């Protein structure tokens, strides 16, 4: 059986972070207010009242963090730009000091032999745009394209590829439908215009990036969906969930159409609450994707609904280990997911990069649970590439322990331990393991 050392020659190794989770410096150098600044002020919204005000202080400590990446031997660093740091109100001219920070970071990465892979939107919408409707408002898509152009004009000469959106499904559901993340709205299915406007924003931004000769990706959190039983009601419920989680965003991008949402009372050609206008899907689909980012954490098991509301109910996955977060550990779900993408989209599927994969553990430095998790998932990924699925790289989540959204600082995903009181960085056992794996894979690939 193939294993992690058999991943293709030229495979690119990376690690990921996101701006609000690591940067801190929320009031400095002209940065505007974000929806996460506001959400963290809501009593009870974030565990222990934590905020990203300081986070990992990456805004000041980035040279130390780049040195850690160099020690790991990374090919790629996936990070995000904070939209309110670049455009404080989400519109108008760029904030020079904000772009100066990313300019320094990009140059530092390149000096360390690491390719920057920036994400334009990792959930930190400028609060000024949320005040006028956020992603429920069509104008936000146009503001996003303007922001993308500003960022690419400053950094694009050194940044060959960009990710437009991170996990638009999660942002839709947690941010606009259930209120578990910023901006904290609880609209349920009435949140669907935010799905369309994120996609429209992607299409408009992709056109700006392609016009500047840059490659475009998008990062989706995708999950293999398994029915709880062979009962037709469970199978139908699983199909309905798969449509919402995996196809609502991916079908328009790769096929130019929304999936059939009849299970949600919206019909086979949904307009998502009147948000879809003539020509929109062409704007979403036409720019094309140069790569698909896949964030994989676990499968989802689905049963028929037991009460009115949505046409599915989530069921537990039993008999498997669980992360510190309580998520099931199912490495074989990764190649299962990749096979589904291959079979579903065929020639329309672009090359894949695993843009997030990792687990939370306790605060110990001897994080054997993480090395086991990464080992088993990378071995499973090697099986998928051996079957001919085109996966070009892997970014683990995350380089650093960081602010884990509504969980605050209670979940630690990093290869590097961060003491949030002192900001001291201490590499964990998994850091050394990942460093040695990257070196061993390169040595084996060189000898092929």
Automatic annotation (TrEMBL):
It is an enzyme of class 3 (hydrolase). Keywords: Carbohydrate metabolism, Cellulose degradation, Glycosidase, Hydrolase, Polysaccharide degradation. The keyword Hydrolase applies. Its EC number is 3.2.1.21. SUPFAM superfamilies: (Trans)glycosidases. It catalyses: Hydrolysis of terminal, non-reducing beta-D-glucosyl residues with release of beta-D-glucose. Gene3D superfamilies: Glycosidases. Pfam families: Glyco_hydro_1. InterPro entries: GH, GH_1_N_CS, Glyco_hydro_1, Glyco_hydro_1_beta-glucosidase. The keyword Hydrolase applies. One of its GO terms (molecular function) is beta-glucosidase activity. Belongs to the glycosyl hydrolase 1 family. This is Beta-glucosidase.
